[in-house]
Amino acid sequence: MDYYKKYGLKEVINASGKMSILGVSTASQEVSDAGEFGLQHFFEMEDLVKKTGQYIARLIGAEDSTIVSSASAGIAQSVSAIIGRGSSYLLAHPYTDKITKREIILPKGHNVDYGTPVETMIELGGGKVKEAGYANMCTCQHIESMITQETAAIFYVKSHHCVQKSMLSIEEVLQLAKKHQIPLILDAAAEEELFSYVSMGIDLVIYSGAKALEGPSSGIVIGKSELIDWVRLQSKGIGRAMKIGKESILGLTTAIENYLTKEAETPENMKARLNPFINELNAVSGLTCSVAQDKAGRNIFRAKLLIDDAAPLTAKELVEKLKQGNPAIYTREYEMNNGIIEFDIRAVTELELVRIAKRVKESITLSKKGEKND
User: Fold this and answer.
1) Are 194 and 208 in contact (CB under 8 A)?
2) Has residue 372 got a pLDDT over 70?
3) Strand order in the sheet with 287-293
4) If we measure between CA atoms, which residue out of 191, 133, 182 comes closest to residue 157?
5) Residues 73, 290: Cα–Cα separation, whole Å
6) Residue 282 vs residue 192, higher pLDDT
7) Which are the contacts of 195, defined by CB distance < 8 A and separation ≥ 6?
8) With 50 as the cut, is the pLDDT of residue 3 above it?
9) Using CA atoms, how far apart are residues 17 and 300, in angstroms rounded to an integer?
10) Dihedral-angle region of residue 58 (phi above 0 means left; psi in -120 to 50 means alpha; beta otherwise)
11) Which residues contact 7 (CB under 8 A, 6 or more apart)?
């Protein structure tokens, strides 16, 4: 069945990365098979959630974990769990005035919009965001100055979306959290490392199941056993609106098994695949293309395309032209206001790279002639 044709949808070449607007990532046949088994069988759902979480925790050396419907759901439920601390009253009254210890300290440069603002998910969980520091700087002193009797947790976001300049490190904020005996929640949604944050002793770490892990739409919260118990408890409260299906639970568990055993693409291989593409675009007048590493420091290398002021198209216009075609080509457009777009090739085939280069060149050439590009 061709669902593109059935529903009149455009095909997509995803050169933007593992983005929610495109369905995040694709799954292996083993993950699909696990999901299919889930769809075709019944389970005691509480048992399934608990035992798959414990199984994953054993694989990565954590105390415990629990699968949720998304990383965003993981944020809301983790915040609610830490505020409620196992309270059954909070489950039915998540925003009750009877519980006042709700302040969640967040570096100001980490209060970003990743599709929705971080603070929206924290507030959905009943937290009250207290920003520390400034947009371009946050130190231990800034966080420490925000701690009060009403502080429930410190929240840290590890993401390319965040301000990287003059921000305290995860190690520094963890040391501060331990000093004041305040739980630390780490949003590591797109991160590719499942071991280091847990081994550091961070209380709760949240990952997207569909990004680096290449599972179905899902998330996972990993951390201290008591806190994970509190997170699981949220399924009887706000988590009911975020419940995850049996197919996604089995799919993500299988995806994590695969993730821990497969070899990731090396930076050298990424660069080698990028070179012909970069050379082809550098041959076009008005374009300068080079290799760029992910701004959050991950071992991800992309093609960085700088659109010269003299080029017939701006970066924004080129991005829109690439989207308008069929297949629609999506790129990373975070810096297009500076004349820069990037191409993430992790989910791009060699043939698709050729098609992208061709479309870029056609867009530039036709614009020079004053023609409309289909």
Assistant:
1) no
2) no
3) 287-293, 301-307, 340-343
4) 191
5) 37
6) 282
7) 60, 61
8) yes
9) 10
10) alpha
11) none
Other beta carbons within 10 Å of 232: 22
How far from 81 is each of 74, 174, 210, 238, CA to CA, in Å?
A: 10, 19, 23, 10
Number of helices and strands in the chain (H, E) = 14, 12
Find tokens 């951390």 and name the residue. 223
Residue-level pLDDT at 56: 97
The whole-angstrom separation of Cα 131 and Cα 51 is: 37
- Kindly state the DSSP code that residue 220 receives in the 8-state scheme: E
Min mean pLDDT across 97-111, 204-218, 293-307 is at: 293-307
Q: Which of 47-61, 62-76, 341-355 has the lowest mean pLDDT?
A: 341-355
Write out the DSSP string of 141-173: HHHHTT--TTEEEEEEE-STTS--TTBPPHHHH
What three-state secondary structure class fits 278?
helix
Give dist(CA 332, CA 242) in Å, integer: 29
The structure's pTM equals 0.86
Sheet (strand 184-187) strand order? 64-68, 219-223, 204-208, 184-187, 151-157, 103-107, 128-132
Distance CA 143, CA 154 (A): 8
What does the block give as tokens for 215?
């599972």
Contact status, residue 175 vs residue 184, Cβ threshold 8 Å: no
Q: How confident is the model at residue 370 (pLDDT cuts 50, 70, 90)?
A: low
Q: Cα dihedral sign for 319, 323, 326, 330? A: positive
pLDDT digits (tens, 9 = 90+) for 155-206: 999 987 777 878 899 999 999 999 999 999 999 998 888 899 999 999 999 9
CA neighbours closer than 13 Å in the CB half-sphere of residue 88: 0
